[in-house]
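Summary for the steering committee. The consortium agreed at its last meeting that each partner would contribute one worked example illustrating the joint modelling workflow. Our contribution is presented below. We chose a case with several input lines so that the handling of multiple components could be demonstrated. No manual editing was applied between input and output; the record is shown as generated.
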Amino acid sequence: MSTARVAFVQGVGFWSSRLPGWDVAAPALRGSTSAPLEASRRPVPALLPATERRRAPDTVAVALEVASRACESAAVDPATLASVFASTHGDLAISDYMCETLATNPTLTSPTRFHNSVHNAAAGYWTIAAGCYAPYTAVTAHAHTFGEGLLEALTQVAADGAPVLYVAYDIEARGPMATMAPSRGLLGAALVLAPAASPRSAARLAWRTCPGHESEATAARAGNLAAVEGNAMAHCLPLFECLAQGSGSLRLSLSPQLLLEITVSPGTEGVRT
Amino acid sequence: MSAGSGAPGRIAPVRVTAFTARSALGTGCTAHAEALRARRSGLRQNDFTETPLETWIGRVEGLEEEALPDRFATWECRNNRLAWSTLQADGFLDAVREARNRYGAGRIALVVGTSTSSIGASEEAYRQLTGDGLYPPALRRPIVHTPHSLGDFVQHALGLEGIAITVGTACSSSAKVFAQAERLLRCGLADAAVVGGVDTLCGSVLFGFASLELVASGPCQPFDVARKGISLGEAGGFALLEPRGATGPWLVGHGESSDAHHMSSPHPEGLGARHALEHALARAGIEAGDVGYVNLHGTASARNDEVEARLIAALFPTRTRASSTKGWTGHTLGAAGILESVLSLLSLEQGLAPGTLNTTALDPACGPQIRIENEPADLRFVLSQSFGFGGSNCVLAFGREPAP
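What follows is the complete predicted structure of the assembly.
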């Protein structure tokens, strides 16, 4: 078991097809309102130049949307933040395109789609759009992606004593790949995490790793799960339920035999949603 | 601390108690050291793709015949084959087994990097779809069709139960794993860490880089005035990091940054690369003048080499040697960080600064630091530079001893 450490949530971003924004998602995750029935297609991140908004892959659109919103609510300049981007499967639509093109006519591979196929495409576009020279990383850990990515962000906060942006997202699978790497709809979730409390702190996270089976990880509430049903990043929900609630404790899996234990309590001013 | 401004503080050095690699040069440290010394390239004409593509590749010999043991059948694919065979070189499996006994399986973190992981298996499935558009039965194994395939396989293969994560930042992936592992160790989240990376040739990268017109038709010529582009390669490599280790060279520093410029071409003034380099030196507590050898990213693409050459000329004294080893191995993408870390550690250990292979006339942008010939050298500190698509930069600093 590791020593307990503390980080503060300075800003939150959230977007899913049925909960498009933290202002809609927070009351729904608390159970105060039900999720809108009509699904939004995809977010339009203001940070991207107008010419790129339409062309941006879904991964980039959803990741940049929640990243910008988290920075806005934390009132921090995105250019200053180191970041951790986590996605279970990366850009499934582009992977489907690449595999299909390679199977039929490899020499027709699109150069743009190829360079957008890298796991760090969303992170790359984010740093370009934000003018950010601070480092980013892009990670995956299959079913443990949200927990492992969050652990890396929390570790950076602890190791370097500076705020870190954490962005987790997955998109809808396409084509034959959908049978092996299933994921539905769009889901993005982001946090700005800081080493010390400020008047803006939305929540305090006390965290540590501890041995334990992945089956002991906290499950999302059934009603909430339905709102992001089938998205590979749905395992981010328990943390956002606690953030919406203002307090609570949860366990995220880091690997089959290791858990990340988090206790959420109100930040300086309590949770603002 | 933002990457653009203040320098980071020093870190406590971490011992590299075991390391190994496999590439077109062969399997294990001795094969790599001998190929460097003999200036024997592992590049050959492309014989990997069914659709013709005129280029040279650094292909690992014999992988096609090296099926994974039955107990690993779920993870069967070219990339995990390379991972498994690499783990067996240089007694690396034994070193991890001993570390597991010493610290416990849950206290060894696993941080591995890859660019395409086992996408080759998905490409194969798409070539063999059944009549109703499904994967062929033999490839209906979800774990090899997701990018954590590598991390998941290596965790099982090594019997580890701790933190296990796959980093995918293109060509800086398996350099950044050292930085991430060092942070985990510094924060006490693990007592040791296995770091590494594996990337294998596949249609995605061969035809993808060709579509960007970055691939040379002949063997790559890093920093040559007449360079025509990159040669792709494949490799695997691993290192065991132990803060309390008794023997081995040291990871003394690391620096990471973003270019904030373009998805597939470097910052024109090398600003991001410069930040990464300065941070690596600052964390190590050394100066540019303390560095004996720099293993450059040196892909042989027109832009990368020009920008990197200017950076080295501007920051290092003339006595510092610098070179690209891509003429030996090709650009192994997500495995380049670990492969070139291993080559840098070998140069430190054996007192040989490798030169640059296939290159005859250096680009005028090169300063006197960039060498074509191998040179014997008493090296105390070496750097390894890795830059990736999406403007992701990482520079690692290794020392024969901890910094003074």
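Chain B has eleven helices and 16 strands. Residues 336-350 of chain B form the longest helix (15 residues).
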